[in-house]
């Protein structure tokens, strides 16, 4: 087994090439996992097949719902100066023996979680049982390794009126901006926590609540400043982690913004178009989509940096730029949520194409390859500090 020297992803995401680390050896060249290009590879990719994953959900099963083009599945992320370690489910599960991994966040984090369980199943591990869904928590158990890989629905991290994992589409989002315990008590025993929370904060107006939903003297305030709201929520999240997480046990990751492709003018197409019918990645170097909120990303990075300074073992995985090239890899109209799109909706992809989530197999598999590299590098001393 090789070991990887990995640094902070906002500071070049450094990783030592696929060579053992030896004491007293001369410094090895370091590589930025997050800087590279997409290379077409129809020999090694995809890492699994959609129809062979028992745990695939209709949200991400693009071929099942009519997508004919499969080229989007055959792109490999190639860092400039090294190779991204290939996902090895059995090596990962050996590492996770007796442990609990928990993805916490919104449907994009669920997208990554489904990718992870599909990757694990593809290794041929026997006796995998269907995930158990209980409230906000979905539990996937690998009995042979006494390990669980779970997902917890908490799109805003703090408490809100959007916390129901099924009925969460509400017109007026109300956020208990200083309350997190209802969710967080379900995370406290995890050995590895992977968080995300961006998309749900982008509403122009949200109502913040101080007090409980049941309280007669609670304070409600409409707040339009999304950056301020987001900063307040991440402060609540950070404070809970600082005082509740076992620093000797738990590793933490925060996934950066997953880029949408709803505005085709970004890549030179007509106004009103989106990811629908896109079949190739964006080739322009240093492309940056107009929907990627840099200031929100900076707030998340600052929160992670603050936790690192407070002694927590946390990394910010900046997958935004590498994912931003992949306008071709979204479900578009080829999916089903709780109900299928109507004929009228299918004929109106400008309004109904999903250019936010990702088809599987696809881009989230690369996120998990990167996560795999970080998890396999268990020695905290070997990680480059900020």
UniProtKB/TrEMBL annotation:
Q: Which cell locations does it reside in?
A: Membrane
Name the membrane topology term: Single-pass membrane protein
Q: What is its main location?
A: membrane
According to the UniProt entry, its GO molecular function terms are: O-acetyltransferase activity
List, alphabetically, the InterPro entries matched. TBL, TBL_C, TBL_N
The entry's family comment says: Belongs to the PC-esterase family. TBL subfamily.
Q: What protein name applies here? A: Protein trichome birefringence-like 34
**Organism the protein comes from:** Nicotiana tabacum (Common tobacco)
